[in-house]
Design a protein that fits this description.
This protein has 689 residues and is an alpha+beta fold. It is built from 25 helices and 10 strands. The strands form 2 sheets. A 6-stranded antiparallel beta sheet has the order 2-3-4-5-7-6, covered by helices on one side. A 4-stranded antiparallel beta sheet has the order 1-8-9-10.
Length: 689
Amino acid sequence: MTAKPPKPSLATIAEDLALDGDTLASQDGESQDGQHQDLPPGAQAGRYVILDMLGRGGMGVVYKAYDPELDRRIALKLLSVRKGSHSQADRARDRLLREAKALAQLSHPNVVSAYDVGTLNQDVFVAMELVEGKTLKEWITETKPTLWEKIAVLIAAGRGLVAAHKAGLIHRDIKPDNIIVGDDGRVRVLDFGLARAADTEDQASPTAQAPAPMLSGDVTSGGSFLSTPMTLAGAIVGTPGYMAPEQYLGEKVDEKSDQYSFCVTLYEACYGQRPHLAKRYGQLKKKVLTGRVDPLPREIKIPACYRRIIQRGLSVAREDRFVSMAELLVQLARDPRKRRRKLLGMAAIILLVLLSFGGAYAWQTQQRQLCAGAQDRLTGVWDPGRKQEIQAAFQASGRPYADDTFGRVEKIIDGYASAWVAMRTEACAATHLRGEQSETLLDKRMHCLDRRWLEMKALIQLFATGADEKVVDKAVPAASGLSSLEICADTEALLAAVPPPADAQMRARVQKLRKRLAEASALDKAGKFAQGLALIEEVAAQTRELAYPPVRAENDYLLGNLQAKTGHAQAGRASLEQALMMAAEAHDDRLLAAIATSLVFTVGNDLKKMDQALAMALLARAAVKRSGDDPAQRIHIASTIGLVYVNKGEYVEAIAYLQDAVDLQQKQQVGNRLILARTLNNLAIALRR
């Protein structure tokens, strides 16, 4: 039975199916291996009844289907595994199932929902939400939205990407045809990762043969190829006009690859064309790899802040792009019309005064000013003058690599400080400008960010005033070890935790103690364990008098670690056990997980108590699960258990845990290179022994 062409108003989940244009598969729509089989209307696919074909492409076929058990229409995507040896096909099918199941576990309003995953004959199927709406490309063409409306849609799509990245899913093919503006007004991003899963092995190498044909199809007046984008499959997965440089090179893709493709899409939404125009694949690849962007259309003007965002996101080197999609979205959400509104407001205030309504405007102005001072908090803490002091202090240490160390530290803290300012500004705006966030949650977020600011300030102060040889040697890992800012955006964790003290006097005492704790933590990070222990012991008595569980937990955690590092293992264990109780009372699951992991390490250093340490490891792993299964904490506990097994002489078990930690770091791109190097070193020791 001949399949009907897809309805242009019906969006499905097939990001790899170029439904209305040329693809690099054969022109009749068959897969490169000819494996797809049509299912006519009325056919059964498991429990699903086929209603109509929505489209086909090189990777599979998408049908509109009916689910009789749940009485709803769905989109059913059948993905075929490419031909090869039996074992290769099985591996590809297993990989596809794993990624499809991971997608099914992702629930976010800006990601198309996957309901069911399984196999049908030799194919893998994914039953997904059927979305009535338009692709981003269709929506822009038909509705002629303003720039601000386009930005709002892309921010919503970006939130879906952030959620996917947190779940460990990389999209690999972001483009306008994979972003849907539903008839219900909700923006959704389509499939994540399935094309790679069905078509490649983990070991796909940069030298693998990738398609590089002369591209045919409509050529726009601007000289770009294929007015309808296409998806490459094989050693390289992606759509040529939107692929990041690393995709062209066949290198491993990550969150920053999606970020690049997102910025190509953002560029196209703003300017009506992609940044790199070419008629041949080779020409396009050369432009992307050299970072050469075509001249901007003169008739289209967009605010400079958006140009800067696009330029950074299109950086050839991954490290020059934004730290994460979340950081990019914070920048993109800043409305450049604010300044114009402020000028209009100044004119309005004169009118309002004349009309005796100045009070209402003054209130609005005050609300906006509340969110404008985050950058000022860095004055005297991390500014050009402070940087000069630190560089001079590093040079005075006599280390020949002092300038290089300072350059690396400067880059790390620049990124951290910038992210801190952006997060603080966004938190304020969410409550005072947009009304999206409660005062209670704002208070907790600001409290969290203030703690991070104290920690950063204390470390910078140590660099400026106490930079001896040891401090310079430890400076890079110390800067890299600043506490993550992500917890300050974790709404669930913040709301569950014990709130900041309501009493102003008690709040001031907590702030003063946390300043001292931050100073002790800086000494710990810089390897000044004895000095850090002396300071934390001074603070300990005051924190116990305060009877505020969060500070008690932080104090005892740091105290226990420093005691263990200075040879007082028994006292360290007692302090960590006390910290564990306080963290539970404070409802701080992340801190509880970190404390439990430290207990495993501390107890595991005693040859007579290694079995106790491994028993505690169960508690630590459970705590990590409870705190959200954060990848960084999973890596930490896996590394720690591996070290305990190394000390115990059980090297097979050690290798399993240490290899797991290495795999997690490389897959999730979590942590810095120093952490990965340390884990690899421990793995090498276990393997050698």
